[in-house]
Amino acid sequence: MDIGLIIALLALGAFVGFAAGLLGVGGGMIQVPFMTYILATQGFAPEYAVHVAIATSLATIMFTSLSSVRAHHKRGAVLWPVVALLAPGILIGSWVGPWIGAQMNSAALAGFFAIFVALSATQMLIDKKPAASRELPKAPGMFAAGGAIGTLAGLVGAGGGFVSVPFMTWCNVKIHNAVATSAALGFPIALAGTLSNVVQGWNAPGLPAGAFGFVYLPALAVISAASVITAPLGAKTAHSLPVKTLKKVFALMLYALAAYMAYHALK
């Protein structure tokens, strides 16, 4: 890789890591569009640029998640019993998600996510209090929720925070705990999704040197190196913000993601 590409990927990794710590998102929905553009400028085949960007994004989330969750765990914010209940469904969904994405019309899929994410953002922005009696579902419901979160995250190469944080806050989980727990869920999402993308891309013709299936190892190394440094800074910032401010920041991030997905659905 030339120095210009390395600098671009380092900057991307630094921003993605901070976002992961701050909002409990893996940063994939930020990383994928930028990385797709970067890969296109480097002469990657157009039919593989998005696949490689999504797969590499999921792989970097493994490292970002570990760095972020360590910082949140030190503050006692991660709800590990919730992680244990959601993780089995997440592992299955994250493996299935990339496969489903290959079977669907990309414009329809992008439009679906735009609507879904915008509704999630609106729910958080208006700060409507959930019913006091509402709580997280029992084990079967958590398994189903984990499967849905994993499938959605695997489809778009994200850490799942854009789904899991609104879900948990809707069930009366405090926003700081929801963000921290979402960061922990990023690892099983990334692990299963990465393995799925490696298998699907294993025999794909024309991939560049350094590709492991659809995962582009040089970009993975550079982005991960930057993101693990900035993720704890994002986590520290999250715990210093009041609840209402953190919810507004998260909602605005979701609106930006919805706008991006709508653009791709309509173009």
UniProtKB/TrEMBL annotation:
It comes from the Bacteria. Its main location: membrane. It is a multi-pass membrane protein. It is found in: Cell membrane; Membrane. One of its GO terms (cellular component) is plasma membrane. Keywords: Cell membrane, Membrane, Transmembrane, Transmembrane helix. InterPro entries: TM_pro_TauE-like (IPR002781). The chain crosses the membrane at residues 48-66, 78-96, 102-121, 142-163, 175-195, 207-229, 249-266. PANTHER family: MEMBRANE TRANSPORTER PROTEIN HI_0806-RELATED. Belongs to the 4-toluene sulfonate uptake permease (TSUP) (TC 2.A.102) family. This is Probable membrane transporter protein. It comes from Noviherbaspirillum sedimenti.
